[in-house]
Design brief:
Layout lengths: L8 H24 L14 H4 L3 E6 H4 L9 E7 L5 H15 L3 E7 H10 L1 H8 L2 E5 L1 H17 L1 H19 L17 H12 L8 H21 L8 H10 L5 H31 L6 E5 L2 E4 L2 E4 L11 H12 L5 H10 L9 H11 L5 H10 L3 H4 L3 H4 L13 H12 L9 H10 L10 H15 L4 H12 L3 H8 L5 H11 L2 H18 L6 H17 L13 H4 L8 E5 L2 E7 L4 H11 L2 E11 L2 E10 L7 H12 L5 H11 L11 E5 L7 E8 L4 H11 L3 E10 L2 E9 L9 H15 L1
Parallel strand pairs: 2-3
Antiparallel strand pairs: 1-2, 1-4, 5-6, 6-7, 8-9, 9-11, 10-11, 10-14, 12-13, 13-15, 14-15
Helix pairs in contact: 1-4, 5-6, 5-7, 8-12, 9-12, 10-11, 10-12, 11-12, 13-15, 13-16, 19-20, 19-25, 20-22, 20-25, 21-22, 23-26, 24-26, 25-26, 28-29, 28-30, 28-31, 31-32
């Protein structure tokens, strides 16, 4: 982290030692002669006797030996009730004031110090780390022991008080890593947060800050030290005009290098700070439920954290780190520290291109929205991200140095992806939206126009993570033109036909247009209030409407068909079932409910439907499922096939079995976008096309199909696709007479019935 940064740690300790010697002399002088007696000269006395019952104690930065050039002195004069303590105090405080050094002082007995500490948070935090400077060491020892004992005994109340104070401070001062002109002490991730962690450790509730946090803390102290040298005063706010000078004092190239180091240090501290408070919260709220709940293959919840299942070896599963991250975000839980360490140090590299499972896990993680941000930060702090995506190093902690932007480049990217997750119901390819949002500013780590350069980098990353070539082209186009809509909408005349034709030419398709429209909103909101507002939103929406009308519509993909050989599987009247790994084929006489009943069997066997296609020819229907186990090993194929045959024969009550499983499941802890059901007009002349978008969950396809059945509809064809954690399902349905739905009341009923089944 530190690189070539010059350290002033030795200078701070030396300055504290010099101050200690000066204060020691002041105390000796003050105790040796009453003020003004004998012409102000010092009377020879026995020093041990003169200093009995009085002690000078350093708190604050002097107490920690972290005194910067402009720091004030925080001192407590402890005494045992001796009657000359006021005179002693005057003979110490006045020379300090005369020297021009700032002073915060108090005079207390041990009992008075303990009483103040019980009532004043600032006082107790200072006394916890108090350091004896001069005088009677027994007084200092006694005060510290009493204060520490009471701090530990009353830790539930006092740590709650400390938590409230840190929250208020962060709300007032912002987040250090992302501020243009940060307060080094009070901002979240700053100096006071480390001191708060030290106070928690003093209560024996959590461990003391580790080596990485201590290194980050020293860097913040060095930056503050340099700021004091530049400004010649005790400043804590690092304003823009001082940043280059401070960088030079610390041996860094420029202000950007300084702010990048600062952001890295602040995020390291902030990450550890959050982990500390999770430990505190467990103390304040009581024990977490015992037991282990499966979350994904090889991943379980235990004690309110995500851990690896027993016997799972990260060295044998390169996808496990992404699968665990996605499971943590979907459950709204943190990865346990030992788990993320094991995954970071033991996971083998992913093959290039990535397998589909790895890409699906990445999309599932991003699709959780806000829940993805802390998990992404966990991966970053553990060094996982730069191994998965080496180009991430270019944007990692990179400051924007622009008041419009509220985040560093890397944080902006994950924030944009989190925001894009709320638009996955609006686009035909939510997976490409999330990936494009994550990569849209990746070019800011390189020289040149970031959109142009970023398109090239995004293309390489898209190929690395295993996207098909056609999808790689789409991501490249979206990254290249991610500013096209907002810039055109605010800088060009939308009534000029040339404006619309040029945008339409650059976009090329309605699919890309809808991705760009969603990304424009997510990008603007992740940038900051100055970058996105209702005025700009209305202009972009108007532009999108005009460009959409100028583009030829992209038709829905045709319903699947099957060959004569596949149809021959239905040679038996009850139908046929074929299971080949993750591919399940069902061929049977066409009848209402075939699709959703078969999907229900798969859900009952804890199989996740990643894709499905259904088609019919004459009196025969065929459904092809692509499935994976929800977690653990796949079910016995013979048992699964037997249940599918029972369903085809009408001899299995799948609804009752799924109801039992639903009752045993815990509800998700992460809020997700509401489902969306759209009846697409003019997409088919022979059927009504219904598009369903929802968060994927066990039995989803069964619920949708059952709702169709309750409405008296037959599914003629279907395309079911799960992109990360999002289901994008399209159904071609007809009524009992085999006709499309034309009655508006019936259309509304179908929509409401499906929505009710999804909630």
């Amino acid at each position: 982290m530190r690189g070539d940064t010059r350290s002033y740690a030795a200078a701070r300790k030396e300055r504290a030692a010099d101050i200690d010697r000066w204060l020691t002399d002041l105390l000796r002088t003050a105790c040796g002669t009453p003020y003004g007696q004998n012409g102000g000269t010092t009377r020879n006395v026995d020093e041990r006797g003169a200093l009995t019952g009085v002690a000078l104690v350093a708190v604050g930065s002097l107490g920690r030996s972290e005194l910067a050039p402009g720091s004030d002195l925080d001192l407590v004069l402890l005494h045992n009730g001796r009657d000359d303590v006021a005179r002693i105090a005057d003979r110490i405080w006045y020379p300090i004031w005369d020297s021009g050094v700032g002073l915060d002082h108090s005079v207390r007995t041990v009992d008075e110090a303990a009483k103040v500490a019980r009532e004043d948070l600032k006082a107790v935090l200072g006394l916890i780390q108090a350091r004896h400077v001069a005088g009677d060491p027994e007084l200092t020892r006694s005060a510290r022991e009493i204060v520490l004992a009471e701090w530990r005994a009353d830790s539930r109340r006092r740590l709650g008080e400390l938590r409230d104070a840190t929250d208020k401070r962060a709300e007032t001062s912002g987040e250090l890593a992302f501020l243009l002109e940060p307060d080094l002490k009070d901002a979240r991730g700053g100096i006071r947060d480390v001191q708060a962690m030290q106070a928690v450790a003093a209560a024996w509730v959590a461990s003391a800050p580790g080596p990485r946090v201590r290194e980050a803390y020293e860097l913040l102290l060095d930056i503050r030290h340099g700021l004091h040298l530049v400004t010649a005063r005790g400043a804590d706010r690092l304003v823009l005009q001082e940043q280059d000078a401070v960088a030079g004092i610390l041996g860094l190239l420029d202000a950007e290098a300084l702010m990048r180091r600062l952001a890295e240090a602040a995020r390291t501290i902030g990450h550890a700070f959050d982990a500390t408070w999770r430990t505190v919260d467990r103390l304040l709220t009581g024990p977490t439920p015992r037991g282990r709940r499966p979350l994904a293959d090889g991943v379980v919840e235990h004690g309110g954290e995500v851990v690896l299942a027993r016997g799972v070896n990260p060295r044998k599963d390169p996808v496990l780190v992404l699968r665990a991250a996605a499971a943590a975000a979907e459950a709204g839980l943190p990865l346990a520290p030992a788990t993320i360490t094991a995954l970071a140090t033991q996971s083998p590299p992913l093959p290039v291109p990535w397998p589909d499972e790895a890409r699906d896990a990445l999309v599932a993680l991003l699709g959780t929205g806000r829940a993805a941000v802390p998990v992404w930060e966990e991966l970053d702090q553990a060094g996982v991200l730069v191994r998965l995506l080496p180009d991430w190093e270019r944007v990692r902690h990179r400051p924007q140095r622009n008041p419009v932007h509220r985040y560093t480049v890397d944080r902006h990217l994950i924030e944009a992806a989190a925001g894009a997750a709320s638009f996955t119901r609006e686009v035909s390819r939510p997976d490409l939206l999330l990936i494009s949002a994550l990569l849209h500013d990746i070019g800011k780590g390189y020289p040149g126009d970031h959109s142009t350069v970023g398109a090239v980098v995004a293309r390489d990353i898209s190929a690395r993570i295993g996207l098909p070539s056609a999808d790689v082209d789409i991501v490249e186009t979206v990254v290249r033109h991610h500013l096209l809509l907002p810039e055109t909408a605010t800088r060009r005349d939308l009534d000029d036909p040339v404006t619309i034709s040029r945008v339409a030419e650059a976009v090329g398709s309605r699919e890309v247009l809808e991705l760009l429209a969603a990304l424009a909103v997510a990008d603007g909101n992740a940038t900051g209030p100055a970058a996105w507002n209702s005025w700009k939103a209305s202009l972009v929406a108007d532009l999108v409407r005009r460009v959409r009308s100028a583009l030829s519509g992209t038709p829905l993909r045709p319903a699947p068909s099957f060959s004569i050989e596949q149809a021959s599987l239905a040679r038996h009247g009850g139908g046929a079932v074929r299971i080949n790994g993750g591919a399940v084929t069902v061929v049977a006489p066409d009848r209402a409910g075939l699709l959703w009943r078969a999907a229900g069997v798969l859900a009952a066997h804890r199989m996740v439907v990643r894709a499905a296609s259904a088609a019919s020819a004459g009196s025969t229907a065929m459904i092809e499922f692509s499935v994976i186990p929800e977690y653990g090993s796949p079910p016995d194929p013979a048992t699964l096939e037997a249940d599918l045959r029972l369903v085809l024969a009408g001899r299995l009550d799948i609804e009752q079995r799924l109801a039992r499983r639903t009752r045993s499941m815990r509800p998700t802890r992460v809020p997700v976008a509401p489902p969306r059901v759209t009846l697409v007009d003019d997409a088919s002349n022979t059927a009504t096309v219904i598009e369903v978008r929802a968060h994927d969950r066990p039995g989803l396809l069964w619920r949708i199909g059952r709702a169709f059945g309750e409405c008296g509809l037959d599914v003629r064809a279907a395309r079911v696709e799960t992109l990360g954690a999002e289901a994008v399902d399209v159904f071609y349905v007809v009524d009992r007479a085999g006709r499309p739905l034309t009655d508006e009341a019936q259309r509304v009923q179908v929509r409401d019935q499906v929505l009710a089944a999804l909630r």
